[in-house]
Amino acid sequence: MTLRAYAKQHKIPTAVVVDGRKIEKALAVLGEDVRKHIVDDAANELTSSDLRPFQTQLLTSKAEASIQSLNSFVHSNYAIPTADALRSTWEACVPVFVATYGEP
Fold first, then answer.
1. Taking CA atoms, which of 2, 18, 21, 65 is between 20 and 30 Å from 103?
2. What's the pTM value of the predicted model, to 2 decimals?
């Protein structure tokens, strides 16, 4: 939800056109587009280093609480991320939350 909200705010395309059909970007792809935009945006002070945990914990498919892993959990009762992985990944998302919704 946050990735799509940020993309909408900053006019980042959330879909691509393939053979004349509009196809939604995979969340990991959209997440990388958002990450790049946040790093390149002069309106904030976030750096590539600030977003590195977001990239490695949420966008890397092999990470325990990556977007792909969380999607697997939704579709399988056996793909359960640990509480520590969820907490760590949540903390890694904080810069994206701040860039999207502002400071708490």
1. 65
2. 0.89
- Residues 31 and 1: their CA atoms lie apart, in Å, by 11
Which whole-number Å values give the CA distances from 41 to 13, 34, 97, in the listed order? Answer: 16, 10, 15
Report which secondary-structure segment, H or E, holds 17.
Answer: strand 15-18
Point out which residues pair with 22 in neighbouring strands. 17
Task: Give CA–CA dist 57/5, Å, rounded.
Answer: 20
pLDDT single digits (tens) 38-55: 999 988 899 999 999 999
Alpha-carbon span 44 to 53, nearest angstrom = 18
Q: Determine how many CB atoms are found less than 10 A away from the CB of residue 53.
A: 16
The H or E element containing residue 16 is strand 15-18
- Answer for the pair 79, 69: CB distance below 8 angstroms, yes or no: yes
Taking residue 50's Cβ as centre, other Cβ atoms within 10 Å add up to: 19
Residue 3 CB coordination number (10 Å): 24
- Whole-angstrom Cα distance, residue 44 to residue 22? 31
